[in-house]
Amino acid sequence: QVQLVESGGGLVQAGGSLRLSCAASGRTFSSHAMGWFRQAPGKEREFVAAISWSVGSTASYTDSVKGRFTISRDNAKNTVYLQMNSLKPEDTAVYYCAAGSRLRTGNYYSSDFYAYWGQGTQVTVSS
Predict the structure, then answer these.
(1) For residues 73 and 53, is the Cβ–Cβ distance under 8 A?
(2) CA-to-CA distance for 50 and 35, rounded, in angstroms?
(3) pLDDT by residue for the chain (127 residues), tens digit each?
(4) Among 81, 114, 97, 102, which residue's Cα sits nearest to residue 30?
(5) CB 14 within 8 A of CB 89
């Protein structure tokens, strides 16, 4: 059974940093694109970042986090990370990890691309 488990969320002051982790189990995810989404109260779930499965692991980001967030993956640990720096109150949300189907490429920005989802981890940034 495929499972994605996020960790690393918490409360941080504006300007601070957090590193989210997403541990995958049930299969090897080295051939799966991985993504992070977030959902703030009263808002739609939105794309944050994605990383491809191909050699070189190309990363994509939504404009609001470019230069502040970095997505990476450690295939040996079956884990994907989201390093979040210079956090702002508007980054407050539940953050979800997602995985695409094996070897699939496409629109990483769309939640429809992803086949597997974690339960989410809360990130709260105080001003």
Answers:
(1) no
(2) 4
(3) 789 999 999 999 999 999 999 999 998 888 999 999 999 999 999 999 999 987 778 999 999 999 999 999 999 999 999 999 999 999 999 999 999 988 888 899 999 999 999 999 999 999 9
(4) 102
(5) yes
